[in-house]
Amino acid sequence: MALRWQWDEKCGEAIIKQTLDGETKEFTKTLYEGNAFLIFLSEWEEEGTEKYALYTFLADEEHAKICLGLKKDHAGEKNNMFVDHWGSTLKKLRINKKKCRNWKKIITLFVQAFDNLEIEIYSEE
Question: What's the pLDDT tens digit per position in 45-60?
């Protein structure tokens, strides 16, 4: 599936805590929907040029359940890819409910998948 999104349709942010070599840092990932349930991008500027890289995505609700460890994957395991994945853990989810068509489903799934996650709902045009 080719992922597509509109740059002016940002629907939130995810704050990721990462520990590498004993040092902990936080990174912000930008959220979009486009033709997926939720798309996570790393965005930055380098030498005056805007750049981005795909961090991860949730294709649809079923894929989200598998990625969040709420449903078994193809190997028969339940693993939340947002918890201690390569030293990274999701710390906070910010969702703009005016720009995120699936915000209620997304929040419900993340609440089910986490015991300790900060969630912020906001409304901006």
Answer: 999 999 999 999 999 9
